């Protein structure tokens, strides 16, 4: 069996950008493209090329980043990280597909977990697929560490939402030389921290509009917290803290 790797991959990329759909629909749409896709005459070619793309994922991502750097003069100083889930209309566990905490609340379908890192311009840098049962807390640090090593980044600011905010993650980010901007639930703060946050007299700097109305201000609060051991429940897949202090 022979087919064009380049042309099959191009067709999938073209259709993903212009009209995202199933592989079957991609195959049906090929004749309406301004590009000649007549050489791709079997639907199975589109499935076969996925295995090759998986094997070449690292080299493809590196190539894309080189080209993006040439065109945008990209300097990676901040990394915006987020994680989500993709479900399948299936209950069959295989490879990466497994049951877990679904972002779409599809508890009766298997899923995969996707971690994605973007630069300051919202352009993806890299991604990683994880088993569907993976807790999102453990996905961020390995991918950030990989990016720092692969692209030789000395200083990096990691930006993420509160779903990734755990003592272990913050401690690990500092260990690999990263600063971070990560959201924190106000209701989870201690009484002293809440008092300091709500104090109207210790704002360090305010930004005003042309009418003198404040639209941005910030304060710095010194917070020292012990690092407790975190474990994952085998039944709920949720993280919980133990009383054991790590640091």
What does it look like?
- This protein is α/β, with parallel strands linked by helices and 247 residues long.
- The protein folds into three domains: 1-55; 75-184, Nucleotidyltransferase, domain 5 (2-Layer Sandwich); 186-247, no CATH class.
- 31% of the residues lie in helices and 23% in strands.
- It has seven helices and nine strands; from the N terminus they run ααααβββαβαβαββββ.
- The chain has helices at 5-18, 23-29, 44-55, 57-72, 140-150, 167-175, 191-198; strands at residues 78-87, 111-118, 124-131, 156-160, 178-182, 205-208, 214-218, 228-232, 239-245.
- Strands 3-2-1-4-5 form a five-stranded mixed sheet. A two-stranded antiparallel ribbon has the order 6-7. A two-stranded antiparallel ribbon has the order 8-9.
- A hairpin with a 5-residue loop joins strand 6 and strand 7 (214-218).
- The termini are far apart.
- The model has no long low-confidence stretch (mean pLDDT 88).
Comma- or semicolon-separated keywords:
globular; 5-stranded mixed sheet; 247 residues; alpha/beta
The major β-sheet equals: 5 strands, mixed
Fraction of residues in helix? 25-40%
Number of helices: 7
Report the top-level CATH class of the largest domain: Alpha Beta
Strand content: 15-25%
Sketch the topology as an H/E string, one letter per element. Answer: HHHHEEEHEHEHEEEE
Tally of DSSP β-strands: 9
Distance between the termini: 58 Å
Q: Tell me, what's the shape?
A: globular
Radius of gyration: 23 Å
Assembly classification:
single chain
Main sheet: which strands, in order across? Answer: 3-2-1-4-5
Stated plainly, the CATH topology of the largest domain is called: Nucleotidyltransferase, domain 5
């Amino acid at each position: 069996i022979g087919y064009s790797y380049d042309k099959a991959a191009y067709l999938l990329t073209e259709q993903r950008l212009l009209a995202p759909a199933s592989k079957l629909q991609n195959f049906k749409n090929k004749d309406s493209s301004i590009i000649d896709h007549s050489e791709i005459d079997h639907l199975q070619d589109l499935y076969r090329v996925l295995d090759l793309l998986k094997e070449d994922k690292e080299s493809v991502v590196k190539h894309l980043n080189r080209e993006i750097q040439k065109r945008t003069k990209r300097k990676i100083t901040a990394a915006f990280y987020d994680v989500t889930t993709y479900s399948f209309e299936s209950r069959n566990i295989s490879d990466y597909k497994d049951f877990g905490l679904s972002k779409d609340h599809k508890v009766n379908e298997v899923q995969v977990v996707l971690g994605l890192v973007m630069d300051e311009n919202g352009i993806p840098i890299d991604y990683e697929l994880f088993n569907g049962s993976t807790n999102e807390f453990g996905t961020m640090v390995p991918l950030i560490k990989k990016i720092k090593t692969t692209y030789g980044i000395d200083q990096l600011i990691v930006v993420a939402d509160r779903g990734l905010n755990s003592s272990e993650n913050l401690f690990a980010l500092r260990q690999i030389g990263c600063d971070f901007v990560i959201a924190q639930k106000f209701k989870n703060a201690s009484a002293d921290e809440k008092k300091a946050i709500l104090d109207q007299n210790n704002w360090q700097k305010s930004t005003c509009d042309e009418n003198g109305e404040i639209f941005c201000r910030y304060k710095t609060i010194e917070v020292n917290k012990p690092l407790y051991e975190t474990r994952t429940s085998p039944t709920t897949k949720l993280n919980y803290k133990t009383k054991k202090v790590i640091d």
